């Protein structure tokens, strides 16, 4: 993604854990901390990324007790409000880096096409 849009987007990434029962021990967190995967390389320490937890089971699981569902729905509502508030406070990244990346990719493609054209003329 950063090769398309630029490094300045890193500060706008968040982690969203769904079906998590609002637990900081959600499997997604363990996966993101796994040294064998590139997340730490890409984002640095994931502890620095905001994490939002949602329990979507309350919307799909009809076997839960009603009171428990109501409490989870209230937590979900609060977490969604926090999440959207956080998003509303993010500064949009400049698209100048993205424009530069796209311009450079176009130049590289043109140069490759030129090389192919010359090689077809002189070597075929």
Mean pLDDT: 77
Secondary structure tally: strands: 2
Distance between the termini: 38 Å
**Strand percentage:** under 5%
Number of domains: 2
Shape: elongated
Query: What about the largest sheet?
Result: 2 strands, parallel
Helix content: 55-70%
Overview of this protein structure:
The protein is elongated. It has helices spanning 2-5, 27-33, 39-43, 57-60, 66-89, 96-123, and strands at 15-17, 51-53. It is mostly helical. It has 2 domains: 2-92, no CATH class; 94-124. The longest helix is centred in the C-terminal third of the chain and has 28 residues, at 96-123. 58% of the residues lie in helices and 5% in strands. Strands 1-2 form a two-stranded parallel ribbon.
Defining traits:
mainly alpha, 6 helices, 124 residues, two-stranded parallel sheet
